[in-house]
């Protein structure tokens, strides 16, 4: 059973986060190991395993990036732990520009501007990803996921810079 089936939701990039959370809590209550405290060792073990699967599925589906990776995995494109380098010269140039920009961040104004620009680019890429997944443009979607992964790394680097500036 895949993660979407577990939550009885369509295998789609666009999910209602509140509905996902509600279904997660409901399933968590029915599967929780404490409900099987008086059961056999096998029942207890099965409850722990089901709860672990439920938690993994929820963590995967609640994040748009990991949800997209999972959708692509269901479609036969494995991105987890890959080392593929994008062959997009325009994006490679943008990566270099972002690296230079991050090196130059030295105050909260430049940090805030970088955050704002990064968030905008991430929103644009996520919108692009949604369209690609909806139209089964899987190879393009995989490349967009790779780009978003890079953008998430940049976001983490900006968070670290913010900590240093504080």
Task: Describe it.
The termini are far apart. This protein has two domains: 3-62, DnaJ domain (Helix Hairpins), CATH 1.10.287.110; 89-165, Monooxygenase. It has helices at residues 3-6, 17-31, 41-62, 64-74, 89-104, 108-134, 138-165. The radius of gyration is 20 Å and the shape is globular. 74% of the residues lie in helices and 0% in strands. The protein is mostly helical. The mean pLDDT is 90. α3 crosses α4, α4 runs parallel beside α6 and α5 (89-104) runs parallel beside α7 (138-165). 16% of the residues are buried.
pLDDT averaged over residues: 90
The gyration radius over C-alpha positions equals 20 Å
Q: Note the gap between the termini.
A: 46 Å
Q: Find the count of extended strands (DSSP E, 2+ residues).
A: 0
Say which CATH homologous superfamily of the largest domain is assigned.
HscB, C-terminal domain
Give the overall silhouette: globular
How does the helix and strand content classify structurally?
mainly alpha
The CATH architecture of the largest domain is Up-down Bundle
CATH class of the largest domain: Mainly Alpha
Helix content: over 70%
Task: Characterize the main sheet.
Answer: none
